[in-house]
Amino acid sequence: MRRAFTARLLDPLREYDLRHRAELIPTLEAFLDCDGSWTRCAARLHLHVNTLRYRIGRIEQLTGRELSRLEDKLDFFLALRMS
């Protein structure tokens, strides 16, 4: 059950990262670690905030989740910790 949960959330991101070297998984981890702070996360990743916004938007598109929703943030947090 845990494997299915993490696969459903993270496999689209892993596949995209492999094809495009987009670093969506590390971006997601950093975004969650920074409590959703755009400026802190962008600084931590050494990115422009617009690049970060693009990556987060891509994560949301690929997964059908919204990182502005607490429930979705929690699901991603758990999936990352279980994987």
What can you see in these coordinates?
- It contains 5 helices and no strands.
- Helices cover 78% and strands 0% of the residues.
- The model has no long low-confidence stretch (mean pLDDT 97).
- α1 packs across α5 (70-82), α2 (24-33) packs across α3 and α3 (38-45) packs across α4 (49-63).
- The protein starts with a helix and ends with a helix.
- It has 83 residues and is mainly α.
- The protein has a single domain (2-82), classed as PucR C-terminal helix-turn-helix domain (Arc Repressor Mutant, subunit A, Orthogonal Bundle).
Task: Compile the SSE list and pairings.
Blueprint (H helix, E strand, L loop, with lengths): L1 H19 L3 H10 L4 H8 L3 H15 L6 H13 L1
The number of domains is 1
Give the overall pLDDT as a whole number: 97
CATH superfamily: PucR C-terminal helix-turn-helix domain
N/C terminus separation: 12 Å
How does the helix and strand content classify structurally? Answer: mainly alpha
The description of the largest β-sheet is: none
Helix content: over 70%
Residue fraction in strands = under 5%
SSE order: HHHHH
The parts where pLDDT drops under 50 for at least 5 residues are none
Q: What's the CATH class, please?
A: Mainly Alpha
Strand tally: 0
Overall morphology: globular
